[in-house]
Write a structure and sequence with these properties.
The protein has 731 residues and is an alpha+beta fold. The protein contains 16 helices and 27 strands. Strands 14, 15, 19, 20, 22, 23, 26 and 27 form an eight-stranded mixed sheet that branches.
């Protein structure tokens, strides 16, 4: 008769888990070897990688890409954009190696730090606290001579008993010299980072009155006022928005005064870092006929305007942009009516606070103004504009644009009388049948680098995890009568949460937007449609991806919650053996295990939505676009990120408590030998090690490895990612 041998189910489970671990370990080593081989093939003799390396980490979904940008080519903080170095204001040249600043200096009792060319620097000495203002006591201009040499100008000393509000009251007094007020306003606004909305409003009113051509005063006062306006434009967008919310008439008045002032400079120009004003005088010309004036702004090495960056051409009939052109405008008008014309270019749109067009990116929207001074209304006046959009072409695609002008009645942008023209050589074209302040409003779509699908090792690892979890759930349910109900319930709930997370990860982590066809050119822009835009960034909404991200968030947090409950339960059973479990223990832990994660996820989504409900892209405050997972914060937004407070912090708290309970159980139960008990003498070291590892896996201790993946070193992060995937597959 054949003999039947009974196998212990625990031994079978251990054998299966060992085989699965060996398979995953082999696959991981194989993938690392292939990756190293590919990187060696993709590396040139100099050791420089020619291809970007893309890594998708198991579970965390972290996506990194090495850049092929020659970062080392640009020096002194310069950045490589669109084939050239964009230098900080203090440097210039092909590689940002030529100094564009005045060194530290002293003048009498005043000390000045490094000052960029074209800007006023504030003294380190400030007014006393008991004075009206705590601003610097003096300013000093760093400028270029006619020979191109950098030199420091004379020091301007301010009055510590003056502030912008006081100057606003004095400006209405016609007997006061405007040059003194203009100089004080310039000194008080030299540090834009300290300006408040009230300061912006007062300063705008002061310089608006100084630029009023109906008041007779020196041209120097008006030039200093333009410097003040340029300094104001360095203030933050938020400050301007709050100032406009209180009184937007102030900005409109200043804009109109700037337009009128642009007609009074003869054939001269005023160039400041954020503003350039150019006049053209026709009073000496008596010929009759149409006239074309072309105003060109050339690209610079930095974002600041410098002397010589503008060109003016008269008696022309067409636009003529080249590779160095950033913006060009052609003004066509009647010579018999026109005595002069003026152009103004603003480096940003902060004075033009729109209620319909909102900006979220840091791409500056330049404003160009054209103004004519004619004897009678000239209905034939028109302008043509070409503009080379400046944005990060590696990360964004131009989605659409609109040709608009500033409507002083609406106090907002309007498209009336303007239409698009055919785009040539990367320039955006516009045509308007009137003259005023124009802009090319642009909207961009971020060119997201969607990661590749899960690789072989990730698919195998997740498949094995899913298989192991299903077998564990079945085993626990079938053998539930041999143990306490609470033990089975906790373990089944833990495995169920982990199983659903794995399934969502495999089938839902990818964003379906990656399959949408996109174009890297602007050939798909509709030039026949000049509709007003509402925002400068466009994102294709995907509510399904948001739901998947929320479910992944919930079940991962639920998995950790159940590991914490499992640890607490094991502590009660092994350490506090003489005390029974609390009444209704299963109901209590169920409410915690399934309810607490739901509350955390609901609060996170609700808070983000309530704070950004007017933002059509509020979903990206919660999740990423590249994958359906929680948003990874920028370096300056870590503290307020949902990833930190709704996942990492709870995970860390649970892990710490699990580690503490794990150590207590190991010391007091598993590895404690009692010579009075015969049973403890028979327990082998191998069995103790297996028991220790089993508890470590159930408690989620292996997730500590995920913190080691936060390193910036790609090679070390890759190694820990595979180790992390390996150990979590065994979970």
């Amino acid at each position: 008769m054949a003999s039947c041998r009974t196998y212990d189910p625990k031994v079978l489970v251990a054998i299966v888990c060992g085989l699965l671990t060996a398979i995953v370990l082999g696959v991981g080593i194989w993938r690392i070897a292939i990756k190293i081989q590919r990187e060696l093939k993709a590396t040139d003799p100099k050791g420089e990688t020619n291809q970007p390396v893309r890594i998708l980490f198991c579970y965390l979904g972290t996506y990194t890409s090495s850049s092929s940008t020659p970062i080392e080519f640009c020096r002194n903080g310069g950045t490589w954009e669109n084939g050239r170095c964009i230098c900080p204001e203090e440097w210039k040249g092909l590689r940002c190696t030529i100094a564009n600043f005045c060194e530290n200096s002293t003048y009498g009792s005043f000390t000045f730090p490094r000052i960029s060319v074209g800007r006023y620097g504030a003294s380190l000495q400030t007014c006393d606290e008991n004075t009206l203002n705590g601003n610097p006591r003096a300013t000093r201009l760093c400028n270029l001579t006619e020979d191109g040499e950098i030199e420091l100008q004379n020091v301007k000393i301010g009055n510590c008993n003056e502030n912008l509000e006081a100057l606003e009251k004095q400006i209405s007094n016609t007997s006061i010299q405007l040059l003194n007020i203009s100089t004080e306003a310039q000194i008080l606004t030299c540090d834009a980072s300290k300006l408040t909305p009230e300061n912006i409003t007062s300063a705008t009113r002061v310089v608006g009155q100084i630029l009023n051509t109906s008041r007779s005063d020196s041209s120097e006062a008006r030039q200093v006022a333009v410097t003040t306006v340029s300094q104001l434009l360095d203030a933050s967008e938020d400050v301007f928005q709050r100032a406009a919310a209180d009184n937007d008439d102030t900005f409109a008045t200043l804009i109109e005064q700037m337009e009128t002032y642009s007609l009074t400079l003869g054939n001269e120009s005023v160039v400041e870092p954020n503003i350039v004003i150019q006049s053209v005088d026709f009073s000496s010309e008596g010929a009759v006929g149409s006239i074309g004036v072309r105003f060109t702004v050339q690209k610079g090495a930095s974002d600041s305007l410098v002397s010589g960056s503008t060109l003016i051409d008269t008696n022309v009939d067409s636009l003529d942009p080249d590779g160095q052109t950033e913006l060009q405008i052609l003004l066509n008008t009647s010579r018999s009516n026109t005595r002069s014309c003026g152009f103004i270019m603003y480096q940003n749109n902060k004075l033009f606070q729109s209620k319909t067009f909102t900006t979220r990116s840091d791409f500056s929207q330049k404003i160009i103004s054209s103004k004519i001074d004619d004897n009678e209304e000239d209905e034939s006046a028109s302008v043509k504009i070409v503009f080379s959009p400046k944005y990060n072409q590696e990360e964004f695609q131009l989605h659409s644009y609109a040709c608009v002008y500033w409507n002083f009645l609406m106090k907002d942008w309007d498209t009336y009388g303007c239409h698009k023209e055919e785009n040539i050589d990367g320039f955006l074209g516009c045509h308007c049948n009137h003259t005023t302040n124009f802009a090319v409003l642009m909207s961009f779509r971020k060119d997201y680098k969607y990661p590749e699908s899960l690789n072989v090792s990730s698919n195998i690892g997740c498949a094995l995890s899913i298989t192991g979890l299903v077998l564990t759930i079945i085993f626990q349910i079938v053998t539930r009568k041999v143990r306490k109900t609470s033990i089975t319930w906790v373990l089944v709930s833990l495995c169920t949460s982990m199983l659903i997370f794995n399934l969502l990860f495999v089938f839902g982590i990818e964003n379906s937007n990656k399959n949408l066809k996109t174009s890297n050119s602007d050939t798909n822009i509709d030039n026949n449609n000049n509709e007003m835009l509402t925002q400068d960034t466009v994102v294709i909404s995907n509510p399904t991806c948001t739901v998947v991200a929320a479910l992944l968030h919930y079940f991962l947090l639920g998995t950790f919650t159940w590991t914490g409950l499992s640890a607490a339960q094991l502590y009660f059973l092994l350490i506090r053996t003489m005390k029974p479990l609390p009444p209704r223990f299963i109901l209590f832990i169920s409410l915690i295990g399934w309810g607490v994660p739901a509350v955390v996820v609901a609060l996170t989504v609700g808070i983000i939505f309530s704070q950004n409900k007017n933002d059509s892209q509020w979903e990206l405050r919660y999740r990423q676009e590249e994958i359906c997972w929680l948003a990874v914060p920028e370096s300056d937004g870590v503290i307020t990120s949902p990833l930190l407070w709704s996942l990492i912090v709870p995970m860390t708290i649970i892990l710490i408590s699990n580690v503490v309970i794990f150590i207590v159980i190991i010391v007091k139960v598993l590895w404690k030998n009692n010579q009075n008990l015969t049973s403890t003498k028979k327990v082998s070291s191998v069995k103790k090690i297996l028991s220790t590892l089993s508890i470590a896996v159930v408690f989620g201790i292996t997730w500590i490895l995920s913190y080691l993946m936060l390193t910036k070193n790609d090679d070390i992060r890759l190694i820990f990612s595979y180790i992390f995937c390996l150990f979590n597959t065994t979970q």
